[in-house]
């Protein structure tokens, strides 16, 4: 088959998800064998034609980034959002909880008003352009990434779980962390990570985003049953739940 | 078939010897809870457990398994697990669940992957010593069990009584050096354990006969309880995942990097999950939470019984009650509510 032309662009993020790709080791060779990577983290070169697959890493935090992303979209046949920053805004959405002028002052101090440090509320990629596929997680799961790429190459829709983390957690035979006083977000967060955190004894903090239809009534009910307050839950949600809506796979 | 008495120290030797010759899976402590696992030593075996986190069905129907590997244009080959193993400590209610799965997987197309594992298993069931906090097996008629196992163990104080029910079981017990024949008094003690469990594994009392359930549900389809309970349902599927009689699965293909070879896998699925009833074209025929919530209790109390000669497909293990964070999954609460509102006819 003709090798599809692939480009990877990054916006606001830690590049941890790209690192996961680089760390694919022997599978990376297979990947490079079947893909023709034309841009990697660089600015678009003017002569670039269309891309078959564009991978966007990171969230959108500045007005000029929105414009850049829109242009990229016009050249992309298929666009994938890679990692929590791109799929749900990720950690970067924390700043949306505060007044933006204060955030700038705090981060940049005196330089806060320089034009190149202009900032806007953080957006996930699909708040700016249409996203065809999302590879969730902070960082992404390497196996899921390669599976999605293989699916795209044979023209099949990848199956990304619609069900919550509890399914994978229970299938692994874990005792529930709520019984040990942890506020685990597993019942409302999309599975696919193999219940990575609860399986090591840490609560799920929601890096894969909400399931399509999270039941907020149920969450409130459980909080009451465990004698917690809604504020306590909100406190647990800031890292990955800030201003986030359900993430459609 | 024979009934032996094994003093507890003799039992320990018997198990340790067994571990040297065959793969042995047994119930062990897992934190403050219990679960099945590969047994390294008889001292890890905890036959005094209350309930295991997962039911033993995963040894016959694993959470994920490869059914076939294929090569595009060159056929496929079925994958079977053919390792012999001994499964020790299956409580009666879980044994009843395995008996039901046997019946279901034998219907229509015999599930050869399930039976490859099932046929290689020797099951040592074990009567309950300590009831769990949500067990209601007495209500469901599953507190004791009379068939399905190869050996049944009963703790009668300083010894185990071990009854072989099959040739596999006889062969297993033949390896127990120092076993005595059980006498009449031993059998009386075992009967006492059975009598106690038949009444006492009952933290939730069903207010009708189990055999009334299919007819009761036949009149309950539009009852408000489904909406009321489902309001706080996460659709997290925990009640499905921990259930010894849930057997739904999903099948998916994954192709390799050569785009020629691949494998077909099946993984547990659950009727409470959003997307469970999605079919080609994106249509979903049980889109509402209440419909999915109702479906599980209909499966347990009506639909599956219609396939297996009226046996109720809830064995009263209580695991779904433990697992459900909003505490709505308890089948007895729902069935009793229907009994109260609709009466038993
Ligand atoms: S999703 Fe997480 S790992 Fe990936 S780029 Fe963002 S912060 Fe880094
Ligand atoms: S620990 Fe978290 S993910 Fe696991 S079952 Fe409990 S709530 Fe669900
Ligand atoms: S358990 Fe939750 S926080 Fe941990 S990787 Fe999975 S989705 Fe992310
Ligand atoms: S009934 Fe409980 S355990 Fe079952 S899906 Fe609903 S919330 Fe989860
Ligand atoms: S429905 Fe609940 S109590 Fe009944 S067998 Fe399943 S998990 Fe056990």
Strand order of the largest sheet of chain B: 3-2-6-7-8-9-1-10
Bound molecules: iron/sulfur cluster
Structural shape of chain A: globular
Number of helices of chain B: 12
Cα radius of gyration of chain B in angstroms? 22 Å
Question: Biggest interface pair, residues each?
Answer: A-B, 38 and 36 residues
Largest sheet of chain B: 8 strands, mixed
Question: Total number of β-strand segments of chain A?
Answer: 5
Roughly how much helix do the residues of chain B carry, as a percent range?
25-40%
Number of domains of chain B: 2
Q: Measure the end-to-end span of chain A.
A: 28 Å
Share of β-strand residues of chain A: 5-15%
Question: What would you note in describing this structure?
Answer:
The complex is a heterodimer of chains A (249) and B (345). With 249 residues, chain A is α/β, with parallel strands linked by helices. Chain A has 2 domains: 5-153, Rossmann fold; 165-248, no CATH class. In chain A, 35% of the residues lie in helices and 11% in strands. A 5-stranded parallel β-sheet of chain A has the order 2-1-3-4-5. Chain A is globular, with a radius of gyration of 19 Å. The two termini of chain A are 28 Å apart. In chain B, the strands form 2 sheets. In chain B, strands 3-2-6-7-8-9-1-10 form an 8-stranded mixed β-sheet. In chain B, strands 5-4-12-11 form a 4-stranded antiparallel β-sheet, with no helix packed on it. In chain B, a hairpin with a 5-residue loop joins β11 and β12. The longest helix of chain B is centred in the last third of the chain and has 19 residues, at 289-307. Chain B has helices spanning 8-21, 92-106, 112-119, 137-140, 167-174, 184-200, 213-218, 225-230, 238-241, 289-307, 319-323, 331-342, and strands spanning 3-7, 23-30, 33-38, 64-71, 76-78, 85-90, 121-126, 151-155, 159-164, 180-181, 249-255, 261-268. Helix content of chain B is 34%, strand content 20%. With 345 residues, chain B is of the alpha+beta class. Chain B has 2 domains: 3-64 and 79-200, no CATH class; 210-250 and 268-342, no CATH class. At the A-B interface, α2, α6, α7 and α9 of A face β11 of B. The complex binds iron/sulfur cluster (5 copies). One iron/sulfur cluster binds next to α1 and α4 of chain A.
């Amino acid at each position: 088959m003709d090798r599809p032309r692939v480009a990877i662009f990054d916006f606001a993020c830690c590049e941890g998800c790209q690192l996961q790709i680089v760390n694919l080791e022997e599978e990376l060779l297979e990947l490079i064998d079947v893909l023709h990577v034309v841009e990697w983290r660089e600015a678009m070169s003017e002569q670039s034609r269309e891309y078959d697959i564009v991978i966007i890493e990171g969230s959108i935090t500045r007005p000029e980034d929105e414009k850049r992303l829109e242009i990229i979209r016009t050249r992309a046949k298929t666009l994938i959002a890679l990692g929590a920053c791109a799929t749900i805004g990720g950690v970067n959405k924390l700043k949306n909880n505060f007044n933006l002028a204060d955030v700038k002052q705090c981060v940049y101090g005196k330089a806060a008003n320089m034009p190149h440090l202009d900032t806007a509320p953080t957006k996930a990629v699909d708040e700016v352009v249409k996203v065809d596929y999302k590879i969730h997680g902070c960082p992404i799961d390497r196996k899921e990434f390669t599976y999605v790429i293989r699916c795209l190459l044979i023209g099949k829709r990848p199956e990304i779980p619609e069900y919550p983390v509890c399914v994978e957690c229970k299938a692994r035979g874990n005792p529930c962390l709520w019984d040990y006083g942890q506020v685990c977000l597993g019942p409302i967060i999309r599975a696919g990570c193999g219940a990575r955190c609860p399986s090591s004894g840490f609560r799920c903090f929601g890096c894969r985003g909400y399931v399509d239809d999270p039941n907020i009534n149920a969450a409130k009910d459980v909080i009451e049953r465990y004698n917690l307050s809604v504020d306590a839950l909100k406190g647990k949600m800031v890292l990955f739940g800030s201003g986030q809506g359900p993430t459609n796979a | 078939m024979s009934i032996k008495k094994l003093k507890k120290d003799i039992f320990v030797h018997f198990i340790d010897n067994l571990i040297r010759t065959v793969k042995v899976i047994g119930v062990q402590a897992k934190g403050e809870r219990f679960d099945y696992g590969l047994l390294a030593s008889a001292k890890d075996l905890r036959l005094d457990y209350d309930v295991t986190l997962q039911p033993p069905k995963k040894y016959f129907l694993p959470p994920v398994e490869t059914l076939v590997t294929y090569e595009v244009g060159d056929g496929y080959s079925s994958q079977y697990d053919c390792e012999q193993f001994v499964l020790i400590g299956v409580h009666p209610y879980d044994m009843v669940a395995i008996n039901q799965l046997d019946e279901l997987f034998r219907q229509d197309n015999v599930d050869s992957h399930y039976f490859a594992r099932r046929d290689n298993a020797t099951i040592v069931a074990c009567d309950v010593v300590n009831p769990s906090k949500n067990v209601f097996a007495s209500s469901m008629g599953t507190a004791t069990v009379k068939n399905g196992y190869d050996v049944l163990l009963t703790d009668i104080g300083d010894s185990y009584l071990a009854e072989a029910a099959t040739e596999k079981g006889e062969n297993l017990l033949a390896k127990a050096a120092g076993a005595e024949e059980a006498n009449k008094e031993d059998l009386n003690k075992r009967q006492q354990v059975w009598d106690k469990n038949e009444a006492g594994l009952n933290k939730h009392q069903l207010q009708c006969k189990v055999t009334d359930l299919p007819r009761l549900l036949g009149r309950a389809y539009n009852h408000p309880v489904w909406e009321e309970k489902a309001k706080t349902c996460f659709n997290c599927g925990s009640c499905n995942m921990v259930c010894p009689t849930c057997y739904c699965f999903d099948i998916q293909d994954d192709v390799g990097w050569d785009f020629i070879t691949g494998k077909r896998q099946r993984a547990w699925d659950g009727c409470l999950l959003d997307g469970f009833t999605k079919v080609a074209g994106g249509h979903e025929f049980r889109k509402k939470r209440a419909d999915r919530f109702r479906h599980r209790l209909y499966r347990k109390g009506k639909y599956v019984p219609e396939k297996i000669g009226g046996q109720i497909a809830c064995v009263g293990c209580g695991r779904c009650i433990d697992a459900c964070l909003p505490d709505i999954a308890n089948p007895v609460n729902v069935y009793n509510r229907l009994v109260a509102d609709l009466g038993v006819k």
